[in-house]
Design goal:
Strand order of the largest sheet: 4-12-11-10-7-5-6
Pfam family, one: Aminotran_3
Keywords: Aminotransferase, Pyridoxal phosphate, Transferase
CATH architecture of the largest domain: 3-Layer(aba) Sandwich
Largest sheet: 7 strands, mixed
Bound molecules: pyridoxal-5'-phosphate
Helix content: 25-40%
CATH class of the largest domain: Alpha Beta
Strand content: 15-25%
Order of helices and strands: EEEHHHEHEHEHEEEHEEEHHEEHEEEH
CATH superfamily of the largest domain: Type I PLP-dependent aspartate aminotransferase-like (Major domain)
Protein name: Aminotransferase class III-fold pyridoxal phosphate-dependent enzyme
Family: Belongs to the class-III pyridoxal-phosphate-dependent aminotransferase family.
Shape: globular
Cofactor: pyridoxal 5'-phosphate
C-alpha cells in the first residue's frame, strides 16, 4: 500500500532529537525553529517527559473512560493552576480540531443557537464545524458547507459590533485565535478581544479562545488571549500540551453547564496521554518556560527588526512571523539547505518561528546569524 500524499515533504528523515535540535539518519544536526509545527513546548525528548511516559507505560497505557483515571484529575489541577483558570472544568480529547469541534458544539448546546462568528484567515482544524469556521474554501467539502458561520475581518471592532447589533440573538459563539498561526502570525488586538467579550456578554454568546497553536505559554502568557485582560468562556488547546504526545482539551468556564453525555471520547484523557501532559506542565513550571518564551521571543523580535530587509516582524513570545524580502524569497529554503535550520511558513511569503519554549539565547543567536548571512548575500 502506498502512502497518501498529505503534505509537501522535505527529503529528510529525522531519527533523533534533543531540546531544540534534531538529527537526520546521517547524523546531521538541525536547529528546530519550527517545533514540529508548534508542538514541541518543553524541548524534544525532555528527560522528565520521557521518564513520566516510561513509568506510566510500565503500569498501564490505556483504559477507557468507564473507570476512574486519577491522572486526569492531577492534570486538571495542574492546568487550572498554571493557566490561572482554576474554576474551569476540563474535557480531554486528542487533537486541536477535536477540541474546537467540541467547543463549538458545546456553545451551540448552551445557547440553543446555530450561528458562529469566525474571522478571515482563521484556521481551526479539519473536522466538520472546525473546518467550516476555517477561512479556506479549498479544504471545506460540500458536506461541510454551512451558512452557520459568518466570517468577519480580523481585528475589526466595528464589523463585529455591527453583526451583533443586527443578529446578536442568533449568535452561539465567536471563535478566535489570540495570534493567528496558519493565517501568517496576526496578533489580535486587546481592544478586539475585549470587544468580543463585551458582545458575547451583551447577547449571551460564548467566547471561544482557540489556543491550539498560540496557547500553552508560547506567547509569553499561558493563553495569548490573556494579554487582553478578559477571560474567554472556553479555551481550546492541543499542540504544546503533550510535547508531541497527541492530546487536546477544552477548558470550560463555570457558568457553562455541559450536561452528562453531551461530550464524549474513547481515547481522550487516557493514562499515557495524561502522563505526557502532566510532565509538560511540571517542566513548564519548574524551568520557568513561559518567562523564557517571553524573554527569548523579545530578543529574537528585536534583533530581527534590526535587519532592515525584513519587513513586518510580528508576534508574541516564541510565536513570531516576518515577511521574506522580495530580494530573498528563497530565505526559508536556504535556512534549511545551507544552515540546517527548520522554520515554518505561511503563504505567500511569511517565515513562522515556533520553536521549543526552552530555546536558549545561543540557539536564537545561531538562527539570527544564519538569517543575517543569507540576507547579506547579494541577489543574482
Ligand atoms: C489555531 C489552530 N486551531 C486548530 C488546529 C487544528 O489542530 P489539529 O491539527 O491538532 O487538529 C490548528 C492546527 O494547526 C491550529 O493552528
Amino acid at each position: 500500500m502506498k502512502l497518501f500524499d498529505v503534505y509537501p515533504l522535505n527529503n529528510i528523515t529525522i531519527t533523533r532529537a534533543k531540546g531544540a535540535r534534531v538529527w537526520d539518519e546521517q547524523g546531521k544536526s538541525y536547529l528546530d525553529m519550527y517545533g514540529g509545527h508548534a508542538v514541541i513546548s518543553i524541548g524534544h525528548t525532555h528527560p522528565h517527559w520521557v521518564e513520566r511516559i516510561e513509568e506510566q507505560l510500565e503500569m498501564i497505557a490505556f483504559y477507557s473512560n468507564s473507570v476512574v483515571i486519577p491522572q486526569q484529575k492531577a492534570l486538571a489541577e495542574l492546568l487550572g493552576r498554571i493557566s490561572g483558570k482554576e474554576n474551569y472544568q476540563l474535557f480531554l480529547c486528542n487533537s486541536g480540531a477535536e477540541a474546537n469541534e467540541n467547543a463549538l458544539k458545546l456553545a451551540s448546546f448552551h445557547t440553543g443557537r446555530r450561528k458562529i462568528i469566525a474571522f478571515k484567515k482563521a484556521f481551526h482544524g479539519r473536522t466538520s464545524l472546525a473546518v467550516a469556521a476555517t477561512d479556506n474554501p479549498a479544504i471545506i467539502s460540500p458536506v461541510n458547507q454551512t451558512d452557520a458561520v459568518i466570517f468577519l475581518p480580523f481585528n475589526d471592532v466595528d464589523a463585529l459590533k455591527a453583526v451583533f447589533t443586527a443578529q446578536g440573538n442568533d449568535i452561539a459563539a465567536v471563535i478566535v485565535e489570540g495570534i493567528q498561526g496558519v493565517g501568517g502570525i496576526n496578533v489580535a488586538t486587546n481592544e478586539f478581544l475585549q470587544t468580543i467579550r463585551e458582545c458575547c456578554d451583551a447577547y449571551g454568546a460564548v467566547y471561544i479562545a482557540d489556543s491550539v497553536q498560540c496557547g500553552y505559554g508560547r506567547s509569553g502568557k499561558f493563553y495569548s488571549h490573556d494579554f487582553a485582560g478578559v477571560n474567554a468562556d472556553i479555551y481550546s488547546m492541543a499542540k504544546g500540551m503533550g510535547n508531541g504526545f497527541p492530546i487536546g482539551a477544552i477548558s470550560i468556564a463555570p457558568h457553562l453547564h455541559p450536561k452528562h453525555g453531551m461530550l464524549g471520547t474513547t481515547f481522550g484523557g487516557n493514562q499515557l496521554a495524561c502522563a505526557a501532559a502532566i510532565a509538560v506542565l511540571e517542566v513548564i513550571e519548574k524551568e520557568g518556560l513561559i518567562a523564557n518564551a517571553a524573554t527569548i521571543g523579545d530578543y529574537l523580535m528585536q534583533s530581527l527588526r534590526e535587519i532592515p530587509e525584513l519587513k513586518n516582524v510580528r508576534g508574541r513570545g516564541l510565536m513570531i512571523g516576518f515577511d521574506m524580502p522580495d530580494s530573498h524569497t528563497d530565505l526559508r529554503k536556504k535556512l534549511l539547505t545551507d544552515h540546517f535550520i527548520f522554520t515554518g511558513e505561511a503563504k505567500p511569503n511569511v517565515i513562522r518561528l515556533l520553536p521549543s519554549l526552552a530555546l536558549t539565547r545561543e540557539e536564537a543567536d545561531e538562527f539570527l546569524e544564519a538569517v543575517r548571512k543569507e540576507i547579506s548575500v547579494p541577489v543574482g
